[in-house]
Amino acid sequence: MRVFIYAENLNPTQLKRRAPEHKFLFKAYLPDHTIHFPRFSSQWRCGLGSITPSPGERVWGAVFDLTDEDLKILDVYDGEVPEGAFRHLEVTVMTEDEQKELVTTHAANPIGKFRVKDDYLDFVGKGVKHWDLPEECIETWELFRPRK
After folding, report:
1. What whole-number distance in Å separates Cα of residue 37 and Cα of residue 116?
2. Strand partners, 36
3. Nearest alpha-carbon partner for 136 in 53, 36, 31
4. CA distance to 15, 40, 108, 134, per residue, from 82 (Å)
5. What value, to the nearest 5°, has the Cα angle with vertex 113 and ends 127 and 34?
6. Residue 52: HSE in the Cβ half-sphere, 13 Å Cα cutoff
7. What is the DSSP string of the chain?
8. Which of the chain's ends, N or C, has fewer CB atoms near its CB within 10 Å?
9. How would you class 57 by CB atoms within 10 Å of its CB: exposed for 0-12, middle for 13-18, buried for 19 or more?
10. How far is residue 43's CA from residue 68's CA, in Å, rounded to a whole number?
11. What is the pLDDT tens value at each position of the chain, 148 positions in all?
12. Domain 2-140: what homologous superfamily?
């Protein structure tokens, strides 16, 4: 199954643990969406990134081929959120050369608005850099850094 992955699941260490048989296909963005933090992570002790509609914005990530077993493991989130915290959606992403592709992704069933921490953003940033996503993606995630 072709799955659009974003946020902390882009980190290669986590992706290998949660989807051991993943195969990278291409970089892409989800148009008219943005990142928000509607679920709390017991592991990170902060909000987890998810997508939400937002006209004119976009969320960068990558599309991977995942097995059904990979998807089941990914959905469990290492037990850091309750079962059913995330749902699957079919979405149309845009490739780097502006081709439309229908893929599956996941989005949180929101329960609130949570703050995010630097260590979580650093972890996401490692994934963004590993997959060589555009500078725009790095800048977007940096905007979420807590002000000191």
Report:
1. 7
2. 50
3. 31
4. 19, 10, 11, 32
5. 50
6. 12
7. -EEEE-GGGGSHHHHHHH-TT-EEEEEEEEEEEEEEEEEEETTTTEEEEEEEEEEEEEEEEEEEE--HHHHHHHHHGGGTS-TTSEEEEEEEEEETT--EEEEEEEEE---------HHHHHHHHHHHHHTT--HHHHHHHHTTSPP-
8. C
9. middle
10. 25
11. 999 999 999 999 999 998 999 999 999 999 999 999 999 988 899 999 999 999 999 999 999 999 999 988 887 765 666 778 889 999 999 999 999 999 999 999 999 999 999 999 999 999 999 999 999 999 999 999 988 6
12. Gamma-glutamyl cyclotransferase-like (3.10.490.10)
